[in-house]
Task: structure prediction
Amino acid sequence: MWLVFAFSGPVLWALSTHIDKYLVERFFKESDVGVLLIFTGLIGLLPLPFIAAFEPHTLGIGALSIAVIVASGALYMGAMFFYLRALQTEEASVISPLFQISPLFAYGLAWAVLGETLSAKQMLGGLLIMSSVFLISLRPRAAGRSRIKLSIVLLMAACAFTLALNSVIFKFFAIRDEFWTTSFWIFVGNVVFGAGLLLYPPYRREFFGLFKVHPYAMTTINAANELINLGGGLGVRYAMLLAPLSIVQAISSTSPLFVFLFGIGLSLFFPALGREDLSKRSLIQKGAAAILVIVGVVLVGPA
Result:
């Protein structure tokens, strides 16, 4: 059953990627991404009473452990800041493959913290995944040449490293302590980050202003999207306890495939909700990058 939990992440995150893009372009194009993260952080309040009722010993892991886990939850929100910055200037099917840098960081951190090792086959798979990152970032110039959008790559590299660090910290404490206890304090970290942003006057004014201008988008579409994200995150985190981190990370790396499939469906049947570049050149480029990702995912998974 761990496969079901592991695949719930890339599928739900791919769906959320397109919803994020729709929200940013339709309602929040001129908004600061910090304002959007306030909502993401505060949505973490929802599961807290349920987890506390289910797991009453959340305070029993020690103050230092709590502080580290809460900081990890804040790190996750920082990663989302980099992600939304990138999403404001690039299409969803380009942004999502850049998440594939995260397994490379995760393998290194897991080796240092959890004692996990890499085989030569896994290293080759990681290089293929990294190659897909640069391939998907190529853009045509007027003269017919291509260039790499370095700013997007750097933003997503920062996002990927922060996500990898968050995953390793979560697995370390979830194995040592307990899944729901660790999840509880991760959500507290999310809430602390969101509340901190809300204390900043310009963000606070814009946040409540968005509720007045776009009440439906903020209370329904955005809330549903955050719950989708939350479900994917919980599924992948639970899978980490049932299988090696490297395998779960590899499966999570299939998200671009689902993003691309969802993007084709939206472009063909619901173009008002999302539109991907379906030109021949773009399809070949993204298809080649997807093949590199798939082959890399196969290789990074232990035999």
